[in-house]
């Protein structure tokens, strides 16, 4: 039915519609160019869980006179024995480089096999860029004049952190370019138009950059930590979520153009029928992300708040700027699939999605059983998951620091490159040293400084850093200290102690945040749908999707990419994104189903909703999955694992759960799906 005589809101009329989009581009560009993102200000314990010994040790070490928060370990190595003359030459060169860089280095230590020399250089750089520059200068200085056959490498915590920082050199630009390119390609394939895709892409792209500026400055102003990966994940989420919202709005606008001559009136109707679903979806995602403020990890809290700000900005841009921008252009912008009045809307066509819906409706129970079996089979991968990604396993490509650490272990005790750190009151230092030397797994103990009434003891372990054996050694140290009178005030830190604390804190975070998110999402769905049964079905479906995605993601990561372990932070972060974003697509489906059910009944309403939203939601899901897969651009295992799990989870949700499982349950239950709400005639 044509609506040509209806009046549109004044702001949507052609002579006014262009004002806000132009101001958006001008002011957004000015903000991005003049202000820019806030730089990362790294604290010594930002990535460690607050309230745990390892975080306290890192914070206290930062106040020591030498600021010994990170130690660079220098390794001179050769296939043959290094003779006395070469050792003196290397020692002189090492001392000279240390003096030039204004640091105090320890004398070189010779290995028992004579093929390696080891030196320790304390550093005091909280800024990752400064630390990386220092390590680069140290490496260059050490290699300036080496004897034949001798190599010089830098490893230890400082070397690893420097190599980690290099991962993010230019990463934001590469990630943004890859994300925008994928979004552009998928928008072109979705709309099959050479022009239309530019409007949502430009709208979302500017929103992404505004979000990065706003989020980083908000975090800095509030004193909440964030790291180099925060803006990358933020960009991926904003592009993915906001483009999904844009797809939903444009799809509804195109349907309205088939029954309404006036573009302004068509957009008014499309906006009215889209805004509830977009706001509900965006607010659900935001609330889920905000729960990360309860995490024990400072950078996780920063990620949650930054992403929440980004989703709000992205949704606001899609609901305010995009409608006006689209109205400014004629129907020609959809060319060659230009909508005209009189064409059938999607819900009335025999589309692929309607045919799938009809097949599901004929045998809903069989569809439910098949869907559950598939999800359960994929979730069985969880039975073989091993968690606890070590620092040396963080990289997709082995950097110098990791290779040097492996070479060091051939000539020195395994833990030499990264000893455990024990801080103890000065009066108990000797007694604690004696206790530590009696602990199985401890190779050596030495005092390396004191400050403000505390002595630092470096404890070299027999276990290789980052291995289960090293973590068992740290557990034994903590137990021995806790069981002795002298060691009750001692605290244990270092990489392996941090790994133990991170695992414990991650488990605690999951126990707290996961039930809270499920409760929040359930309440949000109850309020939106005014139903009890439908929200329960949707929440159960997204949890099942998450478990299946985690199981399948582990199989892919372990079997295809050779990841031996899953990072302890991936399950929680994947849960946040998959539950929040998975609910998005179900909200898009069921809100349309409720609308259609008012006239056509519960069963037919669901089938018509699937027919009308199937294409746009599938496009949105594929787009979002591809966008999260882009995290693999950064050569970090944790981001690759996160991208894999979210990618397969979104695809499962889009292609199986939303297309088959939820419609099958809704058809099987009929009007009871909406209990206690009555949405229309009983089917």
**What is the average of the pLDDT values?**
86
CATH architecture of the largest domain: Up-down Bundle
> Which strand order do you get reading across the main beta sheet?
2-3-1-4
Strand content: 5-15%
Number of helical segments with 4 or more residues: 21
By CATH, the topology of the largest domain is Multidrug efflux transporter AcrB transmembrane fold
Tally the structural domains. 4
Question: Which residue ranges are poorly predicted, with pLDDT under 50 across at least 5 consecutive positions?
Answer: none
What is the CATH homologous superfamily assignment of the largest domain?
Multidrug efflux transporter AcrB transmembrane domain
Helicity range of the residues?
A: 55-70%
- Rounded to the nearest angstrom, the distance between the terminal CA atoms is 25 Å
Radius of gyration from the alpha-carbon trace, in angstroms = 29 Å
Strand elements, count = 8
Structural class: alpha+beta
Q: What is the N-to-C succession of helices and strands?
A: HHHEHEEHEHHHHHHHHHEHEEHEHHHHH
Principal-axes geometry comes out as elongated
User: CATH first level of the largest domain: which class?
Assistant: Mainly Alpha
Description:
- This protein is of the alpha+beta class.
- The longest helix is centred in the C-terminal third of the chain and has 35 residues, at 495-529.
- It contains 21 helices and eight strands.
- It has four domains: 1-35 and 169-343, Multidrug efflux transporter AcrB transmembrane fold, CATH 1.20.1640.10; 69-166, Ribosomal protein S10 (Alpha-Beta Plaits); 347-397 and 508-683, Multidrug efflux transporter AcrB transmembrane domain (Multidrug efflux transporter AcrB transmembrane fold, Up-down Bundle); 407-500, Ribosomal protein S6/Translation elongation factor EF1B (Alpha-Beta Plaits, 2-Layer Sandwich).
- The protein starts with 13 loop residues before the first helix and ends in a 14-residue tail after the last helix.
- It has a four-stranded antiparallel sheet. Strands 6-7-5-8 form a four-stranded antiparallel sheet, sandwiched between helices.
- The mean pLDDT is 86.
């Amino acid at each position: 039915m044509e609506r040509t005589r209806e009046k549109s809101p004044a702001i949507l009329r052609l002579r006014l519609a262009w004002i806000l989009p132009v101001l958006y581009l001008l002011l957004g560009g000015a903000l991005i160019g003049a202000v820019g993102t806030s730089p990362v200000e790294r604290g010594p314990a930002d990535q460690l869980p607050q309230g745990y010994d390892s975080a306290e040790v890192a914070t206290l070490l930062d106040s020591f006179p030498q600021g010994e928060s990170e130690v660079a370990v220098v390794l001179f190595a050769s296939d043959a024995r290094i003779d006395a003359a070469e050792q003196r030459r290397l020692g002189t060169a090492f001392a000279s480089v240390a003096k030039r860089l204004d640091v105090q280095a320890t004398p070189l230590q010779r290995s028992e096999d004579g093929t390696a020399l080891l030196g320790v250089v304390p550093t005091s750089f909280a800024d990752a860029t400064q630390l990386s520059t220092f390590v680069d200068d140290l490496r260059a200085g050490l290699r300036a004049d080496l004897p034949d056959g001798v190599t010089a490498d830098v490893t230890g915590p400082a070397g690893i952190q420097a190599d980690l920082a290099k991962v993010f050199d230019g990463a934001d630009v590469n990630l943004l370019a890859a994300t925008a390119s994928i979004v552009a390609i998928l928008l072109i394939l979705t709309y099959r138009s050479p022009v239309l895709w530019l409007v949502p892409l430009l709208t979302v792209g500017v929103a992404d950059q505004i979000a990065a500026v706003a989020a980083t400055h908000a975090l800095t102003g509030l004193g909440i930590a964030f790291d180099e990966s925060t803006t990358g994940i933020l960009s991926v989420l904003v592009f993915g979520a906001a483009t999904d919202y844009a797809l939903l709005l444009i799809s509804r606008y195109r349907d309205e153009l088939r029954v309404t001559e006036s573009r302004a009136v068509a957009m008014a109707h499309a906006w009215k029928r889209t805004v509830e679903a977009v706001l509900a979806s965006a607010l659900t995602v935001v609330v889920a992300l905000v729960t990360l403020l309860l995490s024990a990890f400072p950078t996780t809290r920063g990620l949650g708040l930054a992403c929440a700000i980004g989703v709000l900005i992205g949704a606001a841009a899609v609901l305010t700027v995009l409608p006006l921008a689209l109205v400014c252009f004629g129907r020609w912008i959809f060319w060659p699939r230009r909508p005209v009045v009189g064409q059938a809307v999607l819900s009335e066509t025999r589309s692929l999605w309607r045919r799938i819906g009809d097949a599901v409706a004929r045998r809903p129970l069989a569809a439910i059983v098949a869907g559950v079996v598939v999800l359960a089979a994929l979730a069985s991968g969880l039975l073989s998951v091993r968690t606890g990604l070590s620092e040396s396993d963080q990289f997709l490509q082995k950097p110098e620091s990791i290779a040097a650490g492996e070479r060091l272990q051939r000539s020195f005790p395994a833990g030499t490159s990264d000893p455990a750190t024990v801080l103890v009151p000065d009066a108990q230092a000797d007694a604690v040293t004696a206790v530590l030397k009696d602990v199985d797994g401890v190779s050596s103990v030495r005092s390396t400084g004191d400050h403000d009434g505390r002595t630092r003891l470096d404890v070299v372990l027999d276990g290789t850093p980052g291995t289960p054996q090293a973590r068992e050694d740290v557990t034994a140290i903590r137990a021995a200290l806790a069981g002795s009178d002298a060691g009750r005030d001692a605290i244990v830190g270092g990489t392996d102690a941090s790994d133990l604390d991170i695992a414990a804190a991650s488990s605690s975070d999951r126990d707290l945040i996961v039930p809270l998110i499920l409760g929040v999402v359930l309440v949000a769905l109850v309020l939106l749908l005014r139903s009890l049964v439908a929200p329960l079905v949707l929440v159960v479906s997204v949890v099942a999707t998450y478990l299946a995605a985690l199981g399948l993601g582990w199989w892919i990561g372990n079997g295809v990419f050779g990841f031996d372990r899953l990072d302890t932070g991936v399950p929680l972060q994947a849960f946040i994104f998959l539950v929040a974003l998975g609910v998005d697509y179900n909200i898009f489906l069921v809100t349309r189903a409720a609308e259609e059910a008012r006239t056509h009944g519960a069963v037919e309403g669901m089938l018509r909703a699937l027919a009308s939203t199937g294409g746009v939601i599938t496009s949105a899901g594929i787009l979002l999955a591809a966008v999260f897969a882009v995290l693999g651009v950064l050569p970090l295992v944790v981001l690759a694992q996160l991208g894999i799990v979210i990618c397969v989870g979104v695809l499962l949700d889009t292609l199986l759960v939303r297309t088959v499982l939820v419609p099958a349950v809704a058809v099987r239950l009929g009007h009871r799906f909406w209990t206690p709400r009555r949405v229309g005639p009983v089917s």
